[in-house]
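hey m, so remember when u said the tokens were messed up on ur end? i reran from scratch. heres the input so u can diff it against urs
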Amino acid sequence: MKYRDSIKQAEQKMTMAVKKLQLWHLPASPINYAVSYEYISKKNTALNAAIESQLSLGKKLDNFFIEENYRQFILGQSKFRDEIIDELDDVVTSVENNHQKSSKGIEQLISTLDGNLSSIQSTDKKKVIAAVNKIRQVTQSFKLHQQKLAENISFTRKKTMALQLELKEARKEIYMDPLTGLYNRKAMSKHLDIWLTEDPSRQVAAIVISIQKLAEINHQFGHLIGDVLLAKIANKVSSYVDDSGLPIRSGDDEILVLLPDVNSSSAIEIANKISQGVEKLRFISSKSGVRLPKMSLSIAVDNFNVAENVNNIIKKTSKLLADKKLIQPNNLI
């Protein structure tokens, strides 16, 4: 057993885990059970801290939250796979070896040329012929070596390109929400650290977005339809954020947009464009042809220092929504 529990201890934890799921109003699915059991075991401090922080906000533990924390704290998704590290080592070693071989071949060629220049200038015909033959041999050897080196470099380049694609996919798994394509909390933490390193006094505008009636859509039309709407809304939000901004899925029906070095007025203007863009979206079920309800957003804007951690920012922005400190469309406040 993972924690070397006795059978009796394991049975007790299993019972407690199921009761905890009932308290959280979650079904006893494999992922939910795994998270609950881990929480009960009190060995995974990061997971427990994330759950307790969520509960302290008075927010329920929904499927999005559970799955995100399962991936991050139980599967250990933040760690690169061993084979990727091995591949990186192989590429680096290959490049270093090729560099050393090339340097050695060039040194040998130069040394041979230097050593035979005087013989070429000699009046002794035999010495000249011997020197030319020696240079020809070394030159031919160098040419063959360079051809082999070119083949090795070509192979390494192909291997590097394949590795880059694999790393790109790995980064998606680590830093992206699989449903919406938005960044996750881990990516948010990473960017905050980068911004903090660049400028500890840096300010960041935060636009917090709550998608209205999404729970009703899920209940009336099913989660599949709700997921499609969520993904389309997330895509629309991303379209209003350039490369300097960071759109994050911070909750089941919440999106957080971080905009470093953007003042409140500009952030509110962006928030208004996002709200108007989403309200213009029209959704029709491809199967039934039924027109789905028009979607709307609740949006709030605030500013933070990059030194604040992820949980504090999410806690404060969620509180803005809870306290109804919202911006009104076209009302720059």
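this time it looks ok to me. The two ends are 56 Å apart (CA to CA). if urs says something different then somethings off w ur setup not the seq
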